[in-house]
Amino acid sequence: MTIKEICSCFNIAGKYLGCKEIPTGNINSTYQVDFKDEGEKREYIVQRINKAVFKEPEKVMDNIIRVTHHVRMNIIKKGLSTKKFVLRAFVSKYDEEPYVIDDQGDYWRCYRFIANSITYDTCDDLLIIERAGRAFGRFQSCLEEFDAKTLFITIPDFHNTKVRYKALHDAIEKDPLKRVSRVIADVNKLLLFEKQATELQDYLDQDKIPTRVTHNDTKCNNVSFDRTTGEALAVLDLDTVMPGAIAHDFGDAIRFIANTLIEDDPNVDDVALDLDKYEAFTKGFVGELKNDLTCMEKKTLNLGVFAMTVELAVRFLTDYILGDVYFKTKYPGHNLDRARNQIALAEDIIRKKSKMDIILDKYL
Ligand code: GN1
Ligand code: MG
To answer: What is the CA(175)–ligand 1 centre distance, in A?
Structure first.
């Protein structure tokens, strides 16, 4: 089905004008769609959910609908605009489900595009970074009373770093494309990190840190900003909202936003953790949440930065070894570049750990 035909199945008012693909995500296919209604242009985001990754898209959408409903109620309580601060998913004309299934059995969904908003794949503006931190913190605090146990686990063990390491070991064992010999040095570095990077999972397994509703994909391009005022608006990409640890969200955000380079830049010698960016995000995120955090959660935030960076390195390298079957790639070796970039970042995080601790303490 064409994007126009998909759109015609959703309850969208007005006339379809056209669409363009947004190539940033590594998993789903995303299109920005224009409509004209009552003389005004209105924009929507239409996405095909990757079924190889999300095996049960209905459950992904069920989580999203319930979480956005809960966030919406809290946004109203805070006196903020629900059109700006929370995603709204459209339902099908035919059965009112928040998705449409096409003739190939693929699931599509449609969100309202937040008017006059923009997202940043990279960002050097410390105020924007601080606001991104505040937005993820606010998202978290809006979901404080939401019972994490009621969410579907749409990708089991998503941030279980131990399970991610197990998958790497299995991939090395299988070595289906004979790629392992090319990445021995990278594998060895990851093995050195394994004990420390899986410590956070130990704390979760032993209930030393609480399981909360977490976003689980806190890249800065998952926050929308007002183009004119620079204000942080809604948190986007709620596919992986599931039970998790706050340190996952903090760590994932820092590994992405405070990297001096974008996560797939092959110039690994220039990869480093930018402490100013680290501080800006920490100020926003921790500033929003510190009164809600347990002592152990506070202690494990920086461990989360290391764990999430290593976990991504492990996931990218595993996918490289298996033949690039999970993440979308733009060229052969793309996953290997991503893995090496994250390994270099992890090495710098080890070097800067004590400086990060001093900065974090300032905001706790
Ligand atoms: C994937 O497609 P995107 O950018 O939303 C991945 C995340 C990774 C990220 C790395 C469901 O997210 O876990 O951190 O790529 N999402 C899934 O860029 O695996
Ligand atoms: Mg995502």
So the answer is: 23
